[in-house]
Amino acid sequence: MRDTRRSHWLLGLAATYLAYRLGQAAVRRARWFEWRHRVAIVTGGSRGLGLVLSRHLVEAGCRVFICARTADDVSAAVAELRSLGGDVDGVTCDVRNPAEVRQVVELAVTRWGRLDVLFNVAGIMQVGPLDAMTLDDFHEAMDINCWGALHTTLAVLPTMRQQRWGRIVNVGSIGGKRAVPHMIPYDTSKFALVGLSAGLRTELAQDGILVTTVNPSLMRTGSPRNATFKGQHRQEYTWFSLGGSLPLLSICADRAARQIMVACQQGESEVYIGNWLSPPVWAARLAPRLTTEVLSLVNRWLPAMGGIGQQAAYGYESESHLAPSWLTALGDAAARRNNELRPRDSLGNPLSEPEGSTS
């Protein structure tokens, strides 16, 4: 009798799980859309993940409007995307400025008469121990990584509500689910973005607008060169650059972009982006408490305060004998592909290549 009850329980559990999976598949099919002739805005679309994502959107037949803070970067990205056959435009925009953000939306809608998808990719990364960080670092991270996404979202809502259809994709981070040491301003802003995105999801669905939060693990975009590093900046750049280059720990940017696009098409609420064996993703999902304890131990091995202190240096100013090296070859190749090589001034504007540099 006990075995019979156990068998019935197991069959019931299996039937419930099957019904759940079938229902999930049906919902995804109902929400699915094709990219051809859609109109998308990609913030931070001139380099890194934003540029990679824009390439894939163009390949899928989507009309793309990119924005970023640097005119030269925007011009170069637009030219490249048009050379791929894309119907593309772009302007400079600081997502911290609501007026500039509204102008981006107005230009996109004026050109194509509609707006279907917003990808909030623009962001910054500051790396170093807590003692090297200032309140300004926290404010800047929040202003760009969180408030910037809110500004763009509020700007697209009138058009999407009028259409009764829209998709918004907010690029969070694994660091917005489990705090990574030596990245606390970034962690703080990404945790805030994840919460904001989840809240927007609950309120905007009634208007036909689905908000998707994507939380990438480490990606091979080449972005460490343009992150800022404090304290012992060369050592900080080394561990960060290595983590963003090693195959098991990091995911190819092209693969990440494809996963993000599929999550948007399926109307998912929240997804992790990474390799199917990605240790950071599985740890954060299956053992969040243990992951926090492990990261506390990892912190003991990271560089102590010192070096340039609270001053900041870009990654390309923080190279060491290990970064670049054969260990960072995949990340360095990604930097060459994704417009991450040009040195920048304190405002993020590209500088001419220093004598003896390579591109």
* CATH homologous superfamily title: NAD(P)-binding Rossmann-like Domain
Distance between the termini: 74 Å
Report the sheet-strand fraction: 5-15%
**CATH class assignment:** Alpha Beta
Helix and strand content put the structural class at alpha/beta
| Total domain count | 1
Overall 3D form: globular
What strand order characterises the main sheet? 3-2-1-4-6-7-11
In round numbers, the mean pLDDT is 91
The beta-strand count equals 12
Key words describing this protein structure:
disordered C terminus; three-stranded mixed β-sheet; alpha/beta; Rossmann fold
Describe the structure.
- With 359 residues, this protein is α/β, with parallel strands linked by helices.
- It has one domain (36-337): Rossmann fold, CATH 3.40.50.720.
- It is built from 11 helices and 12 strands.
- It has a 7-stranded parallel β-sheet, sandwiched between helices. Strands 5-9-12 form a 3-stranded mixed β-sheet.
- β2 (63-68), α3 and β3 (88-92) form a beta-alpha-beta unit.
- α2 crosses α8 (253-266) and α4 packs parallel to α5 (135-163).
- It is globular.
- It starts with a helix and ends in a 22-residue tail after the last helix.
- The model is unreliable at 352-359 (pLDDT under 50).
Concise account of the structure shown:
This protein is an alpha/beta fold and 359 residues long.
Blueprint of the fold:
Elements: H1 2-31, E1 39-43, H2 48-59, E2 63-68, H3 71-83, E3 88-92, H4 98-112, E4 117-120, E5 126-127, H5 135-163, E6 166-171, H6 184-204, E7 209-216, E8 218-220, E9 228-229, H7 233-243, E10 250-252, H8 253-266, E11 270-273, H9 279-286, H10 288-299, E12 313-314, H11 329-337
Parallel strand pairs: 1-2, 1-4, 2-3, 4-6, 5-9, 6-7, 7-11, 8-10
Antiparallel strand pairs: 9-12
